[in-house]
Amino acid sequence: MKKITLILIAMFMTASIISSAQTKSKNPFDLVYGKAITENVSGKVNIHPVAYKVNGIDIAANVYTPADYDPAKKYPTVVLAHPNGGVKEQTTGLYAQRLAESGYITITADAAYQGASGGQPRHIDKPANRIEDIHGMADFITRYPGVDANHLGVLGICGGGGYTLKAAQGDKRFKAVATLSMFNSGEVRRNGFQNSQLTTIQERLKQATDARAQEASGAEVIYAGIANPTDEEIASIPTDLYREGYLYFCQHTSWRGYSLF
Fold it and tell me: What is the pLDDT at residue 64?
């Protein structure tokens, strides 16, 4: 029943969350109330900034607790994995908030090498790292006061959805798994968007191999993609999915690399 409930909540929250995300205000992440991270209010969902390490890298995360949270009680809990290019306050923060309003403890973290988390070089999005980030959230939250480790679910959004399925394959702590707008990063990086690069797989593998050898020799690191594109570069992206993704995740540079709170 818990599995069905988690999936249904993830599905039916979408419309209200999209509406909230489109509303511009002094509360840019549409938190439960203004300054929610630094000024928790009794009787409402509270947001608790936390920090821990995953493989020696500092991780910045937010834990959401239900209204009238009592650490002596036990609450079902959900780990949330953010989309590629996002930060914990975007998208996953909204779902974490809504789930907390429904009685769950939730956690969402900036991936290693991204957002307010540590790791160099910046803006790296390797599948192995992202999968380990999900295990790391589970490691931390299952020791958090009030968490019922026997009722732990995981929700991945967009790129986080693909990583979530892989993480859940070998992590039996997750009793329920759900994804939303799941993006299979491995398939798209191999085949191209909508299989548009099937004829260049071997060529791109050779480029990746050469780039790895170059980095290993201590020479300049070659990056794929643009971490902080200009408005003109965003406008020139031909694919709607990627262009709109850059508009949401990357155009507001104050959201890239730092927490606003």
Answer: 95
The mean of the pLDDT values for the chain is: 82
* Residue 172 phi, psi (nearest 5): -75, 0
Cβ-contact 96, 108 below 8 angstroms: yes
Q: How far, CA to CA in Å, does 22 sit from each of 16, 18, 27, 201?
A: 10, 6, 12, 38
Q: What residue ranges do the domains of the chain occupy?
A: 2-183
Cα–Cα dist 139/61, whole Å: 13
Q: Which stretches of 14-126 are DSSP H helices?
A: 14-21, 92-101
Q: How many Cα atoms occupy the beta-carbon half-sphere of 210 within 13 Å? A: 6
CA distance 87 to 100: 19
End-to-end, the C-alpha distance of the chain in Å comes to 37
Give the tens place of pLDDT for each residue, 169-179. 999 999 999 99
Contact 143, 172 (CB under 8 A): no
C-alpha 88/C-alpha 93 separation (Å) is 6
- Binning pLDDT at 50, 70 and 90, where does residue 23 land? very low
Q: Is it the case that residue 248 has pLDDT exceeding 90?
A: no
Whether the CB-CB separation of 92 and 81 falls below 8 Å is answered with yes
CATH code given to domain 2-183: 3.40.50.1820
